[in-house]
Fold each of these.
Amino acid sequence: MPIHDLGYRHWAGEWTSHPYRWWVITRQGIRMLVQKKRFLVLMILSAIPFVVRSVMIYITTLVGDSARRISLLTINAKFFEDFLSQQMFFTFLIAIYAGAGLVANDLKANALQIYLSKPITRRDYMLGKLGVLVFFLALPTLVPGLLLFLLAVLFQSDLTFLRENYWVLASILGYSLVIVLTYALIVLALSSMTQSSRFAGISFAAVFFFSQILYGILSQILRTTQVAWVSIGNNLSQVGDLLFRHAPQYRSPAWVSVVILAALVAGSAWIVHRRVQAVEVVS
Amino acid sequence: MIIDLENLSVQFGQQQILDGVTVQFVGGAMGLLGPNGAGKTTLLKTLLGFIDPVSGGGKVLGFDVRSQQLAIRQKIGYMPENDCHIPGMNGVTFVAYAGQLAGMKPKDALQRAHEILFYVGLGEARYRNLETYSAGMKQRIKLAQSLVHDPELIFLDEPTNGLDPRGRIEMLDLVRDISTSKSINVILSSHLLPDVEWVCGDAAVIHKGRLLASGKIEDLKRGLGAAFECRIKGDPHAFMEKLQSLGCQCSLGDDGVMRIQMKDGLGSQSLLHVASEQRVQVRHLVPLKQSLEDVFLQVIGESNADS
């Protein structure tokens, strides 16, 4: 029977289980973003450094021991850290493109009432939106990072590289997660504070640039890099150095950067949780 | 029992929004009446679990409003008052997405979305982007998303807002069909009394956060007593004063026609007796059919007089 002849029928199908309800939001968010051509172009561009580094690993294998004299062709922990730090440029752009409108557009269209009138909690909504960002931010960081490591292992004739660098796998995972969660939660928090995705995007960029400019001014005045913790980017670098077992780039203690990033992530999550309400209470 | 509330109170800061609301709804369609700002939407949002009551409580479909909010929302549909949609979606994607959020599998939700969109009259427009929908279509798509998961109860908050007369009648017919033919219980919140009278068998009147009256609309009307349209020869003011002293409500129109709401228990005989006492001639006396508006005006009037 054609659908238009059916009228209203009661439905007695199977329900999905509640713990995975957030995945519905993530899946829909991913689907909507991949339909945008500009976004796809950005994602493809973000894969170029991975291709370049893959070629470098291949060349290193071809050249053999003489490659060790060229620092650029040395495959070690620094190689992977540099790759992830380089990718922060793309994660920054992807966070703005994918994240600025995630909550702001829902606020503008009063969509929260639709979401929260369904059997969905605020936490499900947050997890769903965070899932979209984690997916797209992990694509240029965690995924190629792990693939590069796999390539480096596969291109070696023996297991020496793996034996000496197995811990780098955990560093790649840890550093990628720090980058992804920091960017994702800050942009979500800013998106939840406005109904304009453009404003959220500009605010996100401003937060990063302002903190970097502030560091530049303070380090010039005080003639020390001990104030590196005022910049979000510097904090990420410090944590990267810590995870990849390098001497820190700046003189500020690494634990301060860890605390600041943890506070930023926790504070951002708190803001999103507070702002995601089905009812706006004006006191 | 579909809804059973006991002494439910809600506060925003120091402001009392709902004050000890006690109401029962056994099923069918119930109208939630009240002027703007009376607390109708707050009551619906409290039942949905969006707002925590400060005291009292109750059950919706047997689930506790304080502790079983997800179970309640699984079984109810909500059509919000204001314009709302999920940006960047077309009609069928939006309704299917709403179904998935309610827990339907993607394939089931998509099939159901097509069915529901035809049911609400958006079959031809289902692939259009929501941002291009007219006001009437937006109301229909909100109704569709509230029905997609086949709820046992739906909350409709001002469903005829912004609709032209024809659209309004179509929407009300749809709501009436849902409650009478599809066995879905309906709570219709509206300040438009004819809408409620057209669709609902029960009504609850809320004013300043308090429940003033509730029950079957016919019972509420019966409780008002008789009403008459009356024209007399003689002094209308003395006549009206006498009636008012007996507890009746009177108003005199520009055309000299009086509208008299008799006190419960008094009828035309009493009115004629007063006319005789006041030595006025009754030239015209027609019993009036009571409407929900009369009930509403009376309980609101009494409430205002009390406060």
Amino acid sequence: MIPRRLNHAQDGSKRKAATMHRQRIFFAVSMVSLLLWCSPRSLQAEEIQYRLKWLYNVSVIGDIYAEAGGCFGRMGLKVEVKEGGPERDAIKEVEMGYAQFGVASADQIIRALSKGAPIVVIAQLFQENPLQWIYRSGRIRMDKPSDLKGKTIGITYGGNDETVMRTILLQSGIRESDVRLYSVRYDYTPFYQAKVDLWPVYVNAQAPILRKKLEAAGEKTALFNPADMGIRFVANSVITSRKLASDRPDLIHRFLSALLDGWQQAMDPAHATEVLRVLSRFDRDTAPDIMAEQLDATRRLVHPPGTTIGAIDVSSWRQTEEILLQQKIIPHPVHIERFLAPRP
Amino acid sequence: MLRNRMVQFLLLYVLALAGLLGLKYGLGLSDYIIPPFLEICRTGLDVTPRYVAHVLNTLSIAILGHAISLLLAFAIGMLAAGKSAIAALVKTAAYNVQSYPIVAVAPIIFILLGDGLLSRLIISVMICYFPLLLTVMGVLSEPVEDIEHFYRMTGHICWGLQVRVRMFENIGKLTTVAVGSATMAMVGTIVSEFIASNAGIGYSIRVALYQSDMAKIITALLWIGVATSLYLILVEWIGNLIHRRVAA
């Protein structure tokens, strides 16, 4: 039998041990909390707003794939990829601080720079401009620019297709009175009704849809590409504020690496099934076969042979600026090369 | 009245412009977001002849749309004033047609009628007539018991007389709403031009938006304001004239 005093002593030491154990746990938890609280910001996902130029469709697949595929997350970024639209202006949002990064077309960017917008270009998403004109090849022939004479040509007044078409006309020595310019909207009815001969389309977005509809009606289509006339008008590019580019080069590097990684994966034919699955989550209205065709077309524009995804084609940017100057859309040169950040 | 109304509008316009410029310089915003005062003046001088013509084009459609809306609202309002099955059907149809957002209906209108004058007019009427209709229906559904009771007792009451009595007794309310709806007609026309047409000041604003040219938009707003003020004065004058005639 154990004496009562010894029993008491054992109980006391047990209590002491339990108290010490609790103290150790409390200390460990406190230290972990303190470490977490003091941890560098880089360990936490940094929240970023990224404003696209247009609605969710195949033209932004790399942007949404970078988010959905976890590319941003791996770089410690939590990026909200925000849909664009006709009334959205990523440049204004970047300047106002509502977004850190955005997508805008080259003409928008050059126009904004000519008015002192504090932005820089950090990547060029499309190596070839998707803007072309679709026409019924069974009705008209478009072998050379002079074939435009006498045609009814759709343009969006104030849009970059107006600028590009006016450049083609100017270069080809065609007067405006030699053609009929038709103001277009989002409704394709005038083209379906053959009131307009050439209709502006994004070759990777609307062209497959229009082609399919006209083929179903027994009509063949073809595309009139300004690049065939030597016009290299830059399309969608990624911008950020000059302040962010100079103050946070690490952030620019992480964002751009993740974004271009997303585009790289999205453009890889080996990932096509997964990419189309992601795209169909965002763009629910496009049929799967059309979407696959759109993805192929996008691949040819974003990553044509011999190019690097995201590379900034300085000579094309200079040409775009010259076109805007020539058409008096900007009053003076902006020297665009000063605002094109080399890829990190 | 004309001078007062124009001075009031210009004062408000200048105040709003000053606020915008204050915001620009206060926040250090670039000329891309808000253009400087000199650029606004330069652009204003440059585009004013064109924009005045566009505003007048819009105003002509708005006046026509307003007149059609008034006729339509009074016609449907009278039909819907009674308690018959037809009145109930007209009421339901009027509410249902209006419940569709105009941007959803617009493509159907354009497919059927093209993007010309008729589409602009129809959209303008659709935006303008419903507030008018509500008031007309409200006024014509409310009996004027003191007077109607007399005619009912003497056996002279009929639908036409009932409508005339109710309109006469509520002429102030009806003219006020008719005058107020002039603004809606202008707004409706501009919206229709913005979404579909190739003419008018709404279309010019759309092109300016494409070009991110705020100076042009500010100029367009000035001429829209001037035109709307002038039209309101005219409608108010007509309203007062009707009111006086009826009162006499």
